From TrEMBL:
It comes from the Bacteria. This is TrpR YerC/YecD. It holds the Pfam family Trp_repressor. PANTHER family: LMO1763 PROTEIN, TRPR-LIKE PROTEIN YERC_YECD. NCBIfam families: yecD_yerC. InterPro entries: Trp_repress, Trp_repressor/repl_initiator, TrpR-like_sf, YecD_YerC. GO terms for molecular function: DNA-binding transcription factor activity; sequence-specific DNA binding.
Length: 67
């Protein structure tokens, strides 16, 4: 993991995320800290990462996510 992201601000962000109790709190939190496009982009990147871990091909990932 890159040491560049190990900052107090990032620690506080992660602590805030870890304190969320349910999906509704997640929606509220992320709507407050991200634009809609940022959140959609982040969710797409997460889906791509998940599919890569499942050894999906680039074509499968592209077809499913548009990435």
């Amino acid at each position: 993991m890159s040491k560049k992201i190990h900052t107090e601000a990032v620690d506080q962000l992660f602590e805030a995320i870890l304190s969320l109790k349910n999906k509704e709190e997640c929606y509220i939190f992320f709507e407050d800290v991200c634009t809609i496009n940022e959140l959609l982009s982040l969710s797409q990147r997460f889906e791509v990462a998940r599919m890569l871990r499942e050894k999906k091909t680039y074509l499968e990932i592209s077809e499913k996510t548009g990435a």
